[in-house]
Amino acid sequence: MISRCKFTLIICLLSALFFPACVHDDDETEKCDQGLNISFYSQTRCSTSASYPENIKDLTIFVFNSDDVVVERRRLYDQEIGADFSETVDIGSGLYSVAAWSGLNDYNFDVSDIEIGVTKKNELLFKLRRTISTAVSLEDIAVYYGESTAVYVQEKSTGMHYEDIAVNLLEITNRITISVEGLPEDSGPYGIAIESNNGSMNIDGTIAEDGLITYEPAWSYSTSDILSADFTLLKLETGFENTIVITDTADGTELFRGSLLGALILKNPYVDLNCDHDFTIRFTAEDQCDCGTYTIAEIWVNNWLVHSYDTPMKP
Predict the structure, then answer these.
(1) Could you tell me the end-to-end alpha-carbon distance of the chain, in angstroms, rounded to an integer?
(2) Cβ of 297: how many Cβ atoms within 10 Å?
(3) Residue 94 and residue 87 in contact, taking contact as beta carbons nearer than 8 Å
(4) Does residue 77 sit in helix, strand or coil?
């Protein structure tokens, strides 16, 4: 006779063989009675409550197993997130986490091929498209990234069960307006550019290794004594190169070259890169000797004076 323990083992094996937790229907789509119910919100560490930004219109969702390997990918278009919105993913038992992006498109970004069951969380997701080393403009683009904590999906033999999991989507694009006041009227045009090596990013939201690219302004204007330019940049983080260059394009001389973060933005004590994404940087230039030699006299970031240079008095 078969012992009770052996009989129980046989029943369990037969159940696993004929009644798996996830099955495939005729169109090869995996169907489960268990999985993840994914919701989305946005809340920085400076906020006291969650929000649902109106400029989040699309989602790219990745589900990772306990080895940080992609096991599911979803693309949702024309989808506004809100308190009542969630995406259900049928999946077998195990430990999972979710990462999500919003704002990616084929015009601005060269998105990598993602292979289910192979690609890992820390691998390249996209490169900002560029012509040689000049980046495609990100005007009117808002990119968001978020990642959940890990949750465990229990094996269910009867009924349905979906674990709730939430992703906090935070913006990683930055809008910067740079102006230079007091420029000479007849010395030729000036130009503003930003050099950075932040043009590629991994699936996990970290900046990927990349060469130096140049962000040119999406829009600029100049008058007799002022130049202004608007930029949109990807993630700004210390430890990476982000340099503002103001150049007299007539002869190539540089009026200013300095670190966007170390010398400018982070000199304002009220700026937090995790919360703030809109910056106004204002330079004032002066001819210190009435001889046509211009230097930077003051720099303001979001109306906070970050530099005031000591210069010799005019004769």
Answers:
(1) 113
(2) 18
(3) no
(4) coil
Of the pLDDT bands very low, low, confident and very high (cuts 50, 70, 90), residue 186 is low
Other beta carbons within 10 Å of 39: 16
Is residue 70 within 8 A of residue 116, CB to CB? The reply is: yes
**Beta strand residue intervals within 81-196, DSSP E:** 86-90, 94-102, 109-111, 124-128, 130-131, 134-135, 144-147, 151-153, 161-168, 170-171, 174-181, 190-196
Q: Report how far residue 229's alpha carbon sits from residue 279's, in angstroms, rounded to the nearest whole number.
A: 12
Q: Given strand 109-111, what is the order of strands in its sheet?
A: 109-111, 124-128, 200-202
Rounded CA-CA distance 188/192 in Å is 14
- One-letter amino acid at 138 equals L
Q: Is 6 exposed, middle or buried (0-12, 13-18, 19+ CB in 10 A)?
A: exposed
In terms of Cβ atoms closer than 10 Å to its own Cβ (0-12, 13-18, 19+), residue 193 is: middle
CB 208 within 8 A of CB 220: no
Which parts of the chain fold into alpha helices (H)? Answer: 4-18
**266 three-class SS:** helix
Contact status, residue 94 vs residue 65, Cβ threshold 8 Å: yes
Q: Tell me the mean pLDDT in the region 242-252.
A: 90
> Cα–Cα distance between 202 and 210 in angstroms, integer?
11
User: Two tokens at 32?
Assistant: 């489960």
* Residue 43 binned pLDDT confidence (cut-offs 50, 70, 90): very high
User: Distance between CA atoms of 270 and 264, rounded to whole angstroms?
Assistant: 12
- Per-residue pLDDT at 73 exceeds 90: yes
pLDDT of 148-171, one tens digit each?
999 999 987 667 889 999 999 999
The whole model's pTM is what? Answer: 0.86
How far is residue 51's CA from residue 44's CA, in Å, rounded to a whole number? 10
